[in-house]
Every structure is written in structure tokens, then in C-alpha cells.
Amino acid sequence: MAKGFSIDDVLGDQSKVTRPAGSRMDIVMLPIEDIVDNPENAIYEIGDVGMLQADIAEHGLRTPLEVTPAGGKYMLVAGHRRHTACLGLHNGGDPRFDRLPCIVVNYDSQDEELVALITSNATARELTDGERLRQYEALKGALTRLKAAGKVDGRVREELARRTGEGSGTLARLNA
């Protein structure tokens, strides 16, 4: 007699429930005055946040900010444009933005924090040439220090390409 048909036989491991991607993230509501800009974000231009601010005013902040503890406050790691837009709404008197949803992440080093800041911006929006160059220089420095500390395997340029999505030709031009 023939064996019965099972969707698991066709899909194999794809049908198995697996652990979700990433680590557990708890969202906490932090007072907006406790969230400070990250000086390393000077790599990027905040630019005009008018349209973003209008969208957040209408629909709310749909993506939490990523922050790290910093001397009794919380320093931004990801979400500088969203934070700027919310700050404008808060300063304009909108009490909905007195507290913002945040994911608090503790990094082992400033270099790991810098890598997180850069990689969150690398794919979030179109970068200017100046931003791409400053991003490349900062990320190369951080990855070089992390490699020296034994926290990065392989070549720094390969890791740069992996984290930024840039090709080796683009990275070579940035390096030049």
C-alpha cells in the first residue's frame, strides 16, 4: 500500500516552525527629553523632515527608535530623522510625543554601537556622496578596530561590502 501524502514531505524543513529572526526586543516608552542625539550621526544629514513629521502627526510613530543607555539618558542609535520629527511635534505642543517607543540595546563597545548606527542608515534611505564617504570611513575604522579585538572574521573590505551592500568596485573608489 502506498504511503500517505503529507505537505511536510513536500516542504521539508520549510514547514517547521522556527525561532523568529533576531533577538527579543522589548519596546519601552521613554520621555523625549531623555533621548539625546548621537554625535556619531554627524556622518548623515537630517535634512528636511517636514513630510516625515506630517506622516507621524497623522499616523503616529510606527517604528520605534533604537537607543543605548548613556549616563542616565538614552543615546540614539537608529531613528534620528524620526526623533527630529517627533521633537518638532513635541515642541509644537503635541502631548502625544512626550514619550516615544524605543528599543534599548546595550552594546559591548562604542565600535559595535557605531557599526549598528551605520548599518541602520546604510539601507534606510538614499545617501549623498558625502554621506557615503563619511559612512565608509567611519565603518572601516570601527571594523578595523573590531577585527584587531578579534570580533570580526575575514577581511575588513569583505565585511564592509556585506554590511553596506556596496560592491568591491564602489568600496575601492571610496577608499581611493
Keyword list:
14% strand, 7 helices, five-stranded mixed beta sheet, 176 residues, globular, alpha/beta, 5 strands, single chain
How do the strands and helices of this protein lay out in sequence?
Layout lengths: L6 H5 L15 E5 L3 E2 L13 H10 L5 E6 L2 E6 L1 H12 L7 E6 L5 H13 L6 H20 L7 H9 L3 H8 L1
Parallel strand pairs: 2-4, 3-5
Antiparallel strand pairs: 1-5, 3-4
Helix pairs in contact: 2-3, 4-5, 5-6
Structural class: alpha/beta
Largest sheet: 5 strands, mixed
Number of helices: 7
Number of strands: 5
| Rg of Cα set | 20 Å
Strand content: 5-15%
Query: Percent helix among the residues?
Result: 40-55%
Order of secondary-structure elements:
HEEHEEHEHHHH
Oligomeric state of shown chains = single chain
Weakly predicted, low-confidence segments = none
Explain the overall architecture:
With 176 residues, this protein is α/β, with parallel strands linked by helices. Helices cover 44% and strands 14% of the residues. It has seven helices and five strands. Strands 1-5-3-4-2 form a five-stranded mixed β-sheet. α4 packs antiparallel against α5. The longest helix has 20 residues. The mean pLDDT is 82.
Please give a quick description of this structure:
With 176 residues, this protein is α/β, with parallel strands linked by helices.
